[in-house]
UniProtKB/TrEMBL annotation:
Residues 56-80 are annotated as: Disordered. The lineage of its organism: Bacteria, Pseudomonadati, Pseudomonadota, Alphaproteobacteria, Hyphomicrobiales. SMART domains: AAA. Belongs to the AAA ATPase family. It comes from Mesorhizobium alhagi CCNWXJ12-2. Pfam families: AAA (PF00004). This is AAA ATPase, central region. Signal peptide: none annotated. Gene3D superfamilies: P-loop containing nucleotide triphosphate hydrolases.
Length: 401
């Protein structure tokens, strides 16, 4: 081929950041040259393709390149973590990306989009650096227990391919009150030396309001030590704090976190999605998922998961021992009374006609007579008669009133 050196240079430039289509064309050219007897030229293109493959295998991803911008030693499974001097108890656990579930936690679209921006910032570390901007390096995640805060933090670490240094601050305080400040200093020194995400769980255990008259002077000194260490780490690595009690946090603590992410309790559609996520391998009808979502109003993801486990048990036992959905819900409400909204619990144990009426009239649930009948194990006419009695009873009460 004439001017092959130019063609070779073009191929080498194209393969550096090649799309699948570009690579395919280079492979077609190589095969054509080989077929026409230009074995040396075909071999040259083969060498270009092979070199590109090896470079791709060895080159870090965008996120891995970003990690290289953060100085620090690699944290391995053999790296000893700091311990308390008096008890030799480890002050933290190390969790590696390979040990974290890769499935993204379920949140509403607004929260998911916000989380995505944090991941994108780190994935585009180099581009941000060019305009003198850095990714957010501190994040406070707060919300009710069971809303998935810790799971979210671990998933973010998995996405960033960074190990997690997990510190349970409540245990640290209760066990080592006299040396807590020193232990905190040792933990931050260790975290700052390694490439990792520092995850401070039960953050409110230490970061309490400093002017609380119920707190001893030691805790106040510990809070100050924590603030100083957070300040020192801002330019070093990624730190995540988690709390169920944001109202207990010192205002100075809030200012240390660039991102302050509240995880809300799931709405109806998210509760249904969470139920569907935990349901396999059991296949539940859509109306069952909708009723579970309706029944769990005000519940967290962890509470919905617990109900789904109860449902799966009830549908898997012997045929003669199986419970209907309403009986399963009543069983769960009895064993988990504090986790079920009182209004929903009252309807479950009230006259079934009142429950049917509430199910029919709820616009979010959107049940037809046939849906109610299928769930209750009754035909439509029976459901209709029971609803008629409920309406007459309600009208009578209004008239008497």
């Amino acid at each position: 081929m004439d001017h092959f050196t130019i063609v070779q240079a073009l191929c080498r430039a194209a393969i550096a950041d090649a799309s699948p289509a570009s690579r395919k064309q280079i492979e077609r050219l190589r095969d054509t040259l080989a077929k026409d007897g230009n074995s040396k030229q075909a071999a040259a293109l083969t060498s270009i393709l092979t070199t590109a493959d090896r470079t791709k295998e060895l080159s870090p991803s965008r996120i891995e390149r970003s990690k290289a911008q953060s100085p620090g030693e690699l944290l391995s499974r053999n790296t000893p973590v700091p311990v308390d001097r008096e008890t030799a108890a480890p002050l933290a656990d190390v969790i590696f990306p390979a040990d974290i579930q890769p499935a993204a936690p379920l949140f509403n679209a607004t929260v998911s989009q916000a989380i995505g921006t944090i991941i994108e910032e780190w994935a585009n570390f180099d581009a941000l650096s060019e305009i003198n901007i850095r990714p957010s390096k501190t994040c406070l995640i707060y919300g009710a227990p069971g809303t998935g805060k810790t799971r979210l933090a671990l998933w973010m670490a998995q996405q960033l391919d960074l190990p997690v240094l997990l510190v349970k601050l409540d245990g640290l305080v209760s066990s080592f009150l006299g040396t807590t400040a020193r232990n905190i200093g040792n933990l931050f020194t260790f975290a700052n030396r390694h490439r990792c995400i520092l995850l401070l769980d039960e953050f409110d255990a230490i970061a309490k309001v400093r002017d609380d008259p119920q707190e001893v002077g030691e805790i106040k000194r510990v809070v100050n030590a924590l603030l100083q260490n957070l300040d020192a780490r801002r330019d070093v690595g990624f730190t995540i704090g988690i709390t169920n009690h944001p109202q207990l946090l010192d205002t100075a603590v809030w200012r240390r976190f660039e991102v302050q992410l509240e995880i809300p309790k799931p709405d109806f559609e998210m509760r249904k999605a969470i139920a569907a996520y935990f349901m396999p391998p059991v296949k539940a009808p859509d109306i069952h998922l909708r009723l579970i979502a309706w029944f769990t109003e005000g519940s967290t993801g962890a509470e919905i998961e617990s109900l789904v486990r109860t449902y799966k048990k009830a549908t898997t036992v012997r045929e003669e021992d199986r419970r209907g959905l309403l009986d399963t819900l009543r069983q769960f409400a009895t064993l988990n009374a504090a986790r079920v909204q009182s209004e929903r619990r009252a309807l479950l144990f009230d006259d079934s006609s009142n429950l049917f009426r509430a199910m029919r009239d709820d616009p979010i649930l959107g049940f037809s007579m046939a849906d109610i009948g299928e769930i209750a194990g009754k035909d439509k006419s029976t459901v209709s008669r029971q609803l008629g009695r409920a309406i007459k009873s309600s009208d009578g009460e209004v008239a008497n009133g």
